[in-house]
């Protein structure tokens, strides 16, 4: 929002023009930005669950626990979103922003940790799936043509899959950082701006 960016510049300069903005106007701009950020969060969440559903379909099994985790996450975000839209107090808006940040941080952390743990627990099985997938791709077969249970991984196979897995997890971390991390950062900025209003 151009108005909010202009406000920030005036705020940082501590110029007399800052007095042209009332607390209510500042609050309204921050509220609109927070609502907009929350909308983006919902959109990102929906895209993520669609991608996981597609992955589950390709893999032959739906990630039920992840879907349930997302359902809880999405329900909380929707709840705080509508609560934020109806609030007229900066104190309550600050609380909503904090709650949303906690939900986002919790979901991203649990989701990322879950990915790591599941791959560690199912490392042997996933290595077999990886080998079967490579075999199908190399021979131009349809997905799941090769029975992964018939594959016998060697040390080299484990190392190759481990390297691929580390790269994939790192890329996923970058994606989470660029999406959920940016949202957390924006919400934190909004919270600080509201804190300035309360201090004045």
Jot down its keywords.
0% strand; mainly alpha; 200 residues; 82% helix
Give the end-to-end Cα distance, rounded to a whole number of Å: 23 Å
The low-confidence runs, each spanning 5 or more residues with pLDDT under 50, are 15-19
Q: Report the strand count.
A: 0
Looking at the structure, what is the overall shape? elongated
SSE order, as H and E?
Answer: HHHHHH
Structural class, by secondary structure, is: mainly alpha
- Mind describing the biggest β-sheet? none
Contiguous helical run count = 6
Instruction: Round the mean pLDDT to the nearest integer and report it.
Output: 76
Beta-strand percentage range? under 5%
Radius of gyration: 23 Å
Tally of structural domains: 1
Report the helical percentage.
over 70%
Transmembrane segments: 37-58, 64-82, 103-121, 155-176
Keywords: Membrane, Transmembrane, Transmembrane helix
What does this structure look like?
Keywords: Membrane, Transmembrane, Transmembrane helix. The two termini are 23 Å apart. The longest helix has 45 residues, at 155-199. This protein is an all-alpha fold. It has one domain (2-199). The protein is built from 6 helices and no strands.
Outline of this structure?
This protein has 200 residues and is mainly α.
């Amino acid at each position: 929002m151009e108005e909010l960016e202009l406000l920030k510049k005036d705020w940082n300069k501590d110029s007399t023009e800052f007095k042209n903005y009332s607390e209510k106007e500042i609050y309204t701009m921050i509220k609109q930005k927070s609502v907009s950020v929350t909308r983006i969060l919902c959109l990102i969440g929906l895209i993520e669950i669609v991608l996981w559903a597609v992955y589950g379909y390709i893999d032959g099994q739906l990630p039920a626990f992840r879907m349930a985790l997302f359902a809880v996450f999405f329900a909380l975000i929707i709840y705080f979103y509508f609560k934020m839209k109806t609030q007229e107090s900066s104190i309550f808006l600050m609380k909503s922003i904090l709650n949303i940040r906690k939900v986002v941080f919790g979901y991203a952390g649990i989701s990322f940790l879950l990915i790591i743990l599941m791959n560690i627990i199912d490392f042997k099985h996933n290595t077999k799936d990886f080998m079967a997938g490579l075999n199908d791709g190399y021979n131009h077969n349809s997905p799941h043509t090769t029975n992964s249970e018939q594959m016998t991984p060697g040390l080299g196979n484990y190392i190759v899959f481990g390297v691929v897995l580390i790269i994939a997890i790192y890329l996923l971390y970058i994606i989470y950082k660029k999406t959920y991390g940016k949202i957390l950062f924006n919400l934190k900025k909004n919270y600080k701006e509201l804190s300035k209003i309360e201090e004045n």
